[in-house]
Amino acid sequence: MPGNTLSKGEVFVIETDAASREQLSAALQQSAYNVICFADGASLLSEAKARMPACVLMELPPDRSGLDMLRRLRQENCMAPVLVTSANGSIAMAVDAIKSGAADFIEKPFRTHDIVGRIDAAIDEFAQPRTSRQGWLPGCEPLTAREADVLEHLAAGLTNKEIARRMHLSARTVEGYRAGILKKAGAKNVTDLLRRIFGQGSPTQA
After folding, report:
1. Which residue, of 18, 47, 53, 152, is most buried by count of CB atoms within 10 Å of its CB?
2. Positive/negative CA dihedral, 87, 89, 94, 96
3. What residue stretches are annotated with the Response regulatory domain (predicted)?
């Protein structure tokens, strides 16, 4: 939608599946975004040097080469929020992506309208003053010792089953602790929790 003064900005998209790429482009354009699709990270990086997108949606290849691209984007001072998608998602991969600068980690398959909503949320959060984004930490309810242990394992990239084995608990019990941690931290999901930990400090220090 070139020339549309109501545009919410440009979204750069790397997506190997042609059908998914077309669906994402159509949905984003309907939501007043301009969409530029790229075949690979090198071409996106070159374009990002010349213009600042409102957001980047990047598919993460199985070999994780996208993480290097993500770090290079940050080194080139492209500070737009980057949402990473992957068909081989895991907590460990989410940790790596967030440490490398991703604003969100989204597992495939996903619903296109959900992606648009998460892009909207990432852009809105990015536009907020940094102090307001940090305000949740001082008010975070203290974690119990067991919750702090679970959080430490989550941050290390362990799955619920792996945490359960290490702590000699059932996976369901670990899920209960995890739910309590998310509630206390005010996080929407584990990805949101990890992003806050690595971006703003761990709530276990509160």
Report:
1. 53
2. negative
3. 10-123
- Shared domain for 48 and 125, answered yes or no, is yes
pLDDT tens-digit map of 29-48: 999 999 999 877 778 888 88
Structural domain count, the chain: 2
Q: 114: burial class by Cβ within 10 Å (0-12, 13-18, 19+)? A: exposed
CATH code, domain carrying 185: 1.10.10.10
Both tokens assigned to 22: 């077309």
DSSP assignment, residue 142? Answer: P
Please give the average per-residue pLDDT across 42-63, as a whole number.
86
